[in-house]
Amino acid sequence: MKMRKSEEKQKRLGWIRGLGNGLLAIVILCGLAMVVPGLFRIEMFNVVSGSMAPQIPVGSLIGVRYEAPETLQPGDVIAFLHRDSVVTHRVVANEKQNHELITKGDANAQEDMEPVAYTDLIGKVRFHVPVLGALFGWFSQMEGKIFLIALGTIGALLSMVPFGNNRN
């Protein structure tokens, strides 16, 4: 009978340590996901408007890599600066002689009123992941950073729970 209680305690402690290791893994994966794309010159942005819906919904995380503006083709999705904001729209035409791109959001009825100067191009959208943009946007704010630090601390503490006493 005593053996059974000991086994149950060991199972419970193992579950707690597993939870701690899982929390640590989540924090590490979030950190890597925020850092690794930069090693490949990919910038990450959070989509905050519905102009590209349903293709790229609000809250998506987009990965953008610079590409020479002259090489962009109609249909390519790009990110560019517009009045201190990052905008993601589709290229409708590349006016190479004027060094401008004509763009349009998929959900918009008309082309954008102002062409995008080549100098305002951030790059071509390489991928997008729904929902993660809002999450990563929150992680980049102070509250999100505090949350990740707390989650990592809790995970570390739980993973260090001893497996019992060494008495026989």
Automatic annotation (TrEMBL):
Keywords: Hydrolase. It is an enzyme of class 3 (hydrolase). Its EC number is 3.4.21.89. This is Signal peptidase I.
